[in-house]
Amino acid sequence: MKLLVILIFSGLITCCGGNSSHSLPSKLLLVSFDGFRADYLQNYEFPHLQNFIKEGVLVEHVKNVFITKTFPNHYSIVTGLYEESHGIVANSMYDVITKKHFSDFDDKDPFWWNEAVPIWVTNQLQENRSSAAAMWPGTDVPIHNTTPSYFMNYSSSVSFEERLNNITMWLMNSNPPVTFATLYWEEPDASGHKYGPEDKENMYRVLKEVDDLIGELVHKLKVLGLWENLNVIITSDHGMTQCSKDKLINLDLCIDRSSYTLVDLTPVAAVLPKINTTEVYNKLKVCNPHMNVYLKEDIPARFHYQHNDRIQPIILVADEGWTIVLNKSLPKLGDHGYDNSLSSMHPFLAAHGPAFHKGYKHSTINSVDIYPMMCHILGLKPHPNNGTFGHTKCLLVDQWCINLPEAIGIVIGALLVLTTLTCLIIIMQNRLSVPRPFSRLQLQEDDDDPLIE
Ligand SMILES: *[C@@H]1O[C@H](CO)[C@@H](O)[C@H](O)[C@H]1NC(C)=O
Ligand SMILES: *[C@@H]1O[C@H](CO)[C@@H](O)[C@H](O)[C@H]1NC(C)=O
Ligand SMILES: *[C@@H]1O[C@H](CO)[C@@H](O)[C@H](O)[C@H]1NC(C)=O
Ligand SMILES: *[C@@H]1O[C@H](CO)[C@@H](O)[C@H](O)[C@H]1NC(C)=O
Ligand SMILES: *[C@@H]1O[C@H](CO)[C@@H](O)[C@H](O)[C@H]1NC(C)=O
Ligand SMILES: *[C@@H]1O[C@H](CO)[C@@H](O)[C@H](O)[C@H]1NC(C)=O
Ligand SMILES: CC(=O)N[C@H]1CO[C@H](CO)[C@@H](O)[C@@H]1O
Ligand SMILES: [Zn+2]
């Protein structure tokens, strides 16, 4: 009895007293290692990343968005939107109405980005908060007239150390405080393209370098005293698959180049016919069995890749590992961009910090679910999006979650217990109802239990 009272009392004290930790604004650092295929984690060693996961959470597969390319997927992570809804539908785009072009080297016109509001902009519109970016597609563009308060112009020649130094400096010394920050790194994507993911020897070396960078990141955060209070998400935009010179689809064998404009090439080609769409479609349709050809209106709904002017009238989707070319040899040994239901296209997600459980593993979420989770951590009201907050509840300490297998287990368990009890009661009643001539009242025992005094 006394023990119970003490327990209840201490519970009241812990939940109603000491709210100092809640008054600090939550901070979040979002890190992307481009092209980090989910199963690299199973097939290679990552001592530093595994340590990070041991004290945090891991989502083994993140189902990303179609097309599984870099710019579109990075924008989906920070907006929670499918590509047709955020407007960055490829790394290379053409807008028929304005005749504007977009490419990864010419991406600074806000026109392309303004169909959505990325989280760093929303974060900054809240009182006394700023955002910082050590690169991330779109962070050097004034989207809705707003860049992060602190950012770098994109340049692949800035070292990881410099990106890390500057982003941590901004996280520490800024006023108003930086509560949302991004960090982007080009590997293992660049090497994945160059060697192909099946080149174990080279990928081993490259992935060890990536793991060492994660080690540097954690070390730096610890040295600066940021580690305990900062939430850190490490994820990626897409995976990588092996390509081959024997898996080429040469469009020149099927159709004259003069009859269409090619806005994007492989593995998803965006085709803008010059005169007769039906004619171009009919020729491409029979071009190669390892390529699906869709009129815009027939693109499968599961791709969520249709309702945007920047999606061209015909798209060609190569089968996994196949490369679309214009009478050329194989350009790269590894590629991505394919169907987002292929597990080779999926990245992973790991997270650590006060918002996350410790030592929890989860099988899968969608990349669009990351946005509502980040908004929750930062206390921001999310813009309308395609993610589901409920999918990430199990990762978060302040949420009550129960996953499906557990729920089924509990229901079955409860049913078993109920059935057993019912049977026991029936048996007991049957026994009691047998007349017992010599039964008499039992003396009531003193129920004062000395143990709980
Ligand atoms: C913003 O923060 C600064 C410094 O922390 C403080 O002086 C100022 O009053 C704050 N402004 C608002 C509107 O909260
Ligand atoms: C990083 O910070 C240093 C020191 O403030 C500055 O000189 C440098 O230009 C910054 N680097 C980038 C890429 O912005
Ligand atoms: C980015 O580049 C633009 C144009 O080259 C320049 O005006 C601007 O100062 C640069 N911003 C930063 C943060 O380096
Ligand atoms: C492909 O290119 C070669 C020369 O590089 C040329 O001889 C050949 O005709 C071309 N084939 C097609 C189908 O355009
Ligand atoms: C387009 O091509 C198809 C098939 O070749 C043909 O039947 C149709 O008449 C053409 N339409 C126009 C507008 O030229
Ligand atoms: C995705 O979210 C946007 C914004 O709420 C909405 O307009 C769009 O219809 C959604 N897409 C799907 C497939 O639900
Ligand atoms: C017990 C305690 O620390 N209470 C604090 C909770 O937070 C409010 C506002 O941040 C403070 O005013 C209380 O003193
Ligand atoms: Zn790439």
TrEMBL record:
Membrane association type: Single-pass type I membrane protein
Pfam assignment, any one: Phosphodiest
Keywords assigned: Blood coagulation, Cell membrane, Disulfide bond, Glycoprotein, Hemostasis, Hydrolase, Membrane, Metal-binding, Signal, Transmembrane, Transmembrane helix, Zinc
GO-annotated biological processes: blood coagulation; positive regulation of blood coagulation; purine ribonucleoside catabolic process
Chief location category: membrane
Catalytic activity: P(1),P(3)-bis(5'-adenosyl) triphosphate + H2O = AMP + ADP + 2 H(+)
The protein's required cofactors: Zn(2+)
Function: Hydrolyzes extracellular Ap3A into AMP and ADP, and Ap4A into AMP and ATP. Ap3A and Ap4A are diadenosine polyphosphates thought to induce proliferation of vascular smooth muscle cells. Acts as a procoagulant, mediating platelet aggregation at the site of nascent thrombus via release of ADP from Ap3A and activation of ADP receptors.
Family indicated by similarity: Belongs to the nucleotide pyrophosphatase/phosphodiesterase family.
Protein name: Bis(5'-adenosyl)-triphosphatase ENPP4
Organism whose genome encodes this protein: Neovison vison
